Every structure is written in structure tokens, then in C-alpha cells.
């Protein structure tokens, strides 16, 4: 299996709705590694690494997010791998 990494940027009402915790749960369910964090502009960004199929599922899931979220856009682009164990929530 070849591992790939994607950098995600999710906009809309995605802060204050448990989006980071939800993202961590989704990533762990899909066997992905990486991190998620809130940005000062109100968006949420994440780095996710793993199998292509799992990454595609993650991007699709981000369009829904947790129940209280109102996702406006999900940007996904290829990224170089970052060393990380598991999946963590950063700030």
C-alpha cells in the first residue's frame, strides 16, 4: 500500500461545533494519521496521511462534518508526508 498525504482546509461554520474532535474520530476510524487545528480566519485545517481510499472517504466526510457544522467548502491538495504517530488535535 502506498501512503499519500492531503492538506485539507474546511470553511463555513466549522469552529465551536466540535469539528476537530469529529475529524479525529473519523481519521482514527479510517486508519489515518495526522493532525487537525483551528485557524484564526475561522477555518479548520488538517493534514491526513494514509491509503488513498481512506483519504477520499475523509474528504467526502468533511463535506458533512458533525451535526452542528455548516460546511461551505473543502479544499484538498496533495502534501508531503509529515512524521506523526496517530492523529492529534492541535490548538
Automatic annotation (TrEMBL):
GO terms for molecular function: acylphosphatase activity. Residues 5-91 form the Acylphosphatase-like domain. Gene3D superfamilies: 3.30.70.100. It is an enzyme of class 3 (hydrolase). Its EC number is 3.6.1.7. SUPFAM superfamilies: Acylphosphatase/BLUF domain-like (SSF54975). Keywords: Hydrolase. It catalyses: an acyl phosphate + H2O = a carboxylate + phosphate + H(+). The active site is at 20, 38. Belongs to the acylphosphatase family. This is Acylphosphatase.
Amino acid at each position: 500500500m502506498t501512503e499519500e498525504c492531503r492538506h485539507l482546509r474546511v470553511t463555513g461554520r466549522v469552529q465551536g461545533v466540535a469539528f476537530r474532535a469529529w475529524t479525529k474520530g473519523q481519521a482514527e476510524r479510517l486508519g489515518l494519521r495526522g493532525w487537525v487545528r483551528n485557524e484564526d480566519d475561522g477555518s479548520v485545517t488538517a493534514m491526513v496521511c494514509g491509503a488513498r481510499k481512506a483519504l477520499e472517504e475523509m474528504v467526502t466526510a468533511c463535506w458533512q462534518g458533525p451535526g452542528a457544522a455548516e460546511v461551505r467548502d473543502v479544499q484538498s491538495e496533495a502534501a508531503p508526508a509529515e512524521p506523526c504517530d496517530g492523529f492529534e488535535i492541535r490548538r
